[in-house]
Amino acid sequence: MKDKRARRNPKSVSQNKAPLLPSKYAQEEAIGEGFSGASFSGAVFNLSTTIVGAGIMALPATMKVLGLGPGLFAVVLAAFLTEKSIDMVGRASRAAKVGSYAGLMGDTFGPIGRALLQVCVVTNNLGVLIVYMIIIDSLRYTSALSVALAVVFVVVTAGVAVMKLLEGSIDEPRMLPDITDQASFWKLFTVVPVLITAYVCHYSVHPIENELEDQSQMGSIVRTSLILCACVYMATSLFGFLLFGEKTLEDVLANFDSNLRVPFGALLCDVVRLSYVLHLMLVFPIIFFSLRLNLDGLLFPYAVPIASDARRFFAVTVGSMAFIFIGANFIPSIWDAFQFTGATAATCIGFIFPAAITIRDTRGIATKEDKVSSWFMMVLSMFTSMVAISSDIYTFSDGT
Fold first, then answer.
1. Which of 129, 134, 271, 380 is deepest in the core (most CB within 10 A)?
2. Cα(341)–Cα(296) distance, integer angstroms
3. Is residue 19 part of a domain?
4. Higher per-residue confidence, 132 vs 355
5. With pLDDT > 70 as the criterion, what percentage of the chain qualifies?
6. Per the structure, how many domains does the chain have?
7. Residue 354 contacts residue 89 (beta carbons within 8 Å)
8. pLDDT at res. 7
């Protein structure tokens, strides 16, 4: 009877503290009893891998829109707000004794809240993985390595930019946005979805925390990861915009098809392109894990866990991959994908839902400062998203 009740109650599944890679058999759990939990550095690496995805490729283009001054400030502000929102979700989860983001939304807003979160995660992750597939298909490289390969991209870009800067062959970068009319002003808000998408990792925090021996370290792990990623993002934005200036494309990786006019320029372009695609190949399964888990929970809320049903696991996996591949062939650019997912699903996951959870405060743990911060985050997110969507609609209808 107990098993039947668990299968009929979707919340019971969402509240299980399942790690990113759960054991399939009890025997395997017994064999792994000597495992003392994930390390601090390992958790930082896992979370950073989730954060540093394809969004980094669009960040130099945000500098082109905002200028270096406001652009770099926006990168830092987005990191700060992300840390605050993750802290809100973490404290609320511990108070409610749930082990997943979906479980927390279910505890706070009921089945509708849980389903809404799952819809947003599915939408966001499909958009992100379509971006990955666009980049991978366009470069025709396959394989998988670590997040260190993303650093290779940053180092090479910075090296080439500094070399050309010393040669005097780089124009002085624009520090402020170029606002010439009303349309150019509203276009500033179109960078918001890109910045939000670049930092969204909330759906991966609980699985990573569940693997830790000392879960009190999670706050420090999140801060360390966000500081690391913010530094990588700032370096990419700065040196990418320095290197290509007003010719910076929406996907800066496409700029490396051109002649850099430096010694071994062609080889450096190949290193940059290959290293980043290899990085995406590693991140792809991590993002896909959350996609499959939330899509399955949305479609089959009363079924047994997907890991216990091979047919359902195969069907959800193949169906998702087919959708991602088709989407990558029909969506023209990564900027378009970021605009849609960033202004809708990513904004909800990253800021609106955490703020709403804190404002409702069903467990009575939120401070006055928490609620003030939540209202600020809620209003700012909704305003910028609406403006970004409106600006995109205007741009598309105007044909510019």
1. 129
2. 20
3. no
4. 355
5. 82
6. 1
7. yes
8. 41
**pLDDT tens per residue, range 196-228:** 888 888 888 888 888 887 778 888 999 999 998
* Tokens representing residue 290 in the block: 């959350």
Assess contact for 150 and 52: CB atoms under 8 A: yes
Tokens of 252: 């800066």
Residues 6+ apart with CB under 8 A from 124: 197, 200, 341, 345, 346, 349
Q: Which residues of 100-125 are buried (b: 16+ CB within 10 A; e: fewer)?
A: bbbbbbbbbbeeebbbbbbebbbbbb
**Residue where the block lists tokens 């904004």:** 347
Asked if residue 56 belongs to a domain, the reply is yes
Task: Tell me what the pLDDT averaged over the chain comes to.
Answer: 78
Indicate which CATH number applies to the domain containing 224: 1.20.1740.10
Q: Name the pLDDT band for 357 (thresholds 50, 70, 90).
A: very high
Reply yes or no on whether the pLDDT at 95 is more than 70: yes
Q: Which of 350, 358, 385, 383 is nearest to 120 (CA)?
A: 350
24 belongs to a structural domain: no
List of residues 6+ apart from 359 with CB closer than 8 A: 366, 371, 374, 375, 378
CB atoms within 10 A of CB 83: 18
Q: Is residue 6 part of a domain?
A: no
- Predicted structure pTM score: 0.76
Range of the domain at 69: 38-174+191-395
Residue with structure tokens 């002003």? Answer: 185
**Which residues, 6 or more positions from 121, have their beta carbon under 8 angstroms from its beta carbon?**
101, 102, 203, 290, 291, 294, 345, 349
95, 172, 214 from 64: Cα distances, Å? 43, 13, 43
